[in-house]
Amino acid sequence: MTEKNFILKGNVCCSETSTAFSITENAYLVCEGGLCAGIFRELPEKYRSFPIKDCGDNLIIPGLTDLHIHAPQYSYRGTGMDLELLEWLNTITFPQEAAYANLNYAQKAYSIFTEALKKSPTARACIFGTMHVPATELLMDLLEETGLKTMVGKVNMDRNGVPNLQEKDAKTSAQDTATWLEDTLHKYQNVRPILTPRFTPSCSDELMEMLSVIQKKHHLPMQSHLSENLGEIAWVKELCPDTDFYGEAYDKFGLFGGECPTIMAHCVHSPDAEIHLMKERGVYIAHCAQSNTNLSSGIAPVRRYLNEGLHIGLGTDIAGGASLSMFRAIVDSIQVSKLRWRLVDDTQKPLTLEETFYLATEGGGSFFGKTGNFKEGYEFDALILDDTSLPHPQELTIRDRLERMIYLGDDHIITGKYVSGKKIF
To answer: How far is CA 318 from the centre of its chain?
Structure first.
């Protein structure tokens, strides 16, 4: 199905609101020019010439968005999970990422990663590469071929790395970033560059000033990490004594939302002033529940962020998180919120399936624009889910089946995937 005018027929599930599902059984989901034209119980006359794929009793849901993932870390996911963040970075992550200076290694590793991402529930993703320009451009080339919509960043880090994973100085890092942007800014249909200072401990003030100039020149979005771990937060305070909280280390360079669309991953221990500034600047939070658990960082107060109207999506954070599946990210987010409610703050109710599904679809997808839902005019990202491999003796509602597939399923239940109206498989 190569044309972008077509119809999927099945049980269509998406978010009605951020707290409720819209479920239409045996419905027609129309794609016109790569965009959603609507969900119909009876097919309007004007669409009756479109080819129809009858999905039978399968479920059709929007493609999911992963707001935070490290592509070079996919090769060692599930490694070093007894360590906390800073020790894990120094003993596992930095030495492993140094291998991407070898383009042959990068070709092997990124080919594995991109093929897995293509088969996953993820339709859109914001992705960290490494500091290496050739390897990052290779990653972008491979992602372009998948048909997925992604933002990819060449990582900046001119301090506090390891000998073979640290840029020479701020000027070199900025020059490499400019070269990378010249090569990639207008090269792709599906992949966009995103400015990626690793985190404040990895980037000197001089480098951040240079990146701010680059951001303004090209109007780039930006991604980084924020208030993930208590040791990290204390370190940032030592490195940036002129700031009152971690977010100010980005904001003082104009790299914290506003005119610079920004994703900050984790936000586990954000103080009140930081939360208020994120709301004011429109910063997106990438909630990475599994990584926060694996690296003993804590449980982010997502219920508070929702109540206060912040932008939130979900991230797998490979390889702090061990699973590439956004289904798993949904489940982990629900489960840790239950622990926070029971053990930390009983005034903040746990997240629901409806809420976390929204975060994984339209909540995070909105960073890319009109995506993550089947509303008219939204980009047509869709997954076809077949749960016949999950037999059951009882009658189940469509919502029951969707919940089971999210909790019990994996990539094999996905029998079709579309991004912007293009069939991926």
So the answer is: 10
Three-state DSSP class for 166? coil
CA nearest neighbour of 413 among 189, 120, 143, 1? 120
Tell me the C-alpha distance between 389 and 391, whole Å: 6
pLDDT tens digits, 233-266: 999 999 999 999 999 999 999 999 999 999 999 9
- CA 97 to CA 72: how far, in whole Å? 6
- The region, left, alpha or beta by phi > 0 then psi within -120 to 50, assigned to residue 26 is left
Partner residues linked to 52 by β-bridges: 7
Per-residue confidence (pLDDT) for residue 1, from 0 to 100: 43
pLDDT score at 256:
98
Backbone angles phi, psi at 373, to 5 degrees: -150, 170
Neighbours of 397 (CB within 10 A): 10
Question: Distance (Å, rounded) from C-alpha 280 to C-alpha 297?
Answer: 25
Average pLDDT of the chain, as a whole number: 97
Distance CA 75, CA 105 (A): 11
Order of strands, sheet of 52-62, starting from the edge strand that comes earlier in the sequence: 35-40, 20-32, 6-17, 52-62, 382-385, 414-419, 422-423
Encode pLDDT of 144-166 as tens digits.
Answer: 999 999 999 999 999 999 999 99
For the beta sheet containing 122-128, the strands, ordered from the edge strand earlier in sequence to the opposite edge, are 64-70, 122-128, 149-153, 191-193
Alpha-carbon distance 247 to 280, whole Å?
12
Is 417 in contact with 409 (CB distance < 8 Å)? Answer: no
How far apart CA 126 and CA 69 sit, in angstroms, is: 7
pLDDT score of 99 more than 60: yes
CA 393, CA 384: separation in Å to the nearest integer?
23
Statement: the pTM of the whole predicted model exceeds 0.85: yes
Mean pLDDT of 184-203: 98
How far apart CA 31 and CA 53 sit, in angstroms, is 11
Q: Which residues contact 363 (CB under 8 A, 6 or more apart)?
A: 18, 311, 312, 313, 314, 372
pLDDT of res. 362:
98
